[in-house]
Amino acid sequence: MNNLFKTSTLLFLSLHAAGFMLSVFTVLGFPGQINKETVFITTLSKILDVLLIAAWKGIPWLVAGSVIAFYFKYDIIAKSFCFLSLGIGIGLVITLITLYNVIP
Asked: What are the pLDDT digits (tens) for 69-86?
């Protein structure tokens, strides 16, 4: 039972790595031109700026918080931190895909 708990913990902690890698892919960007014809671009760029700050400053704190929560057996809090980290990364990628006109 203890090994199963360790495996489950490592699986959830890998969600932090996935969220961080998605934020790294967002910083690297996609090839393509920004579609400047729409007014919606300013809103998306502001959302992207907020999510990037949240990712770079927040994901390390979420990792530390979830490791501490797993250590003290607060599984619901630790799992929510893991899913929040992954959600920030997915939000960054979706915002970047929407912001750029990837298909010419």
From this structure: 988 989 899 999 999 999
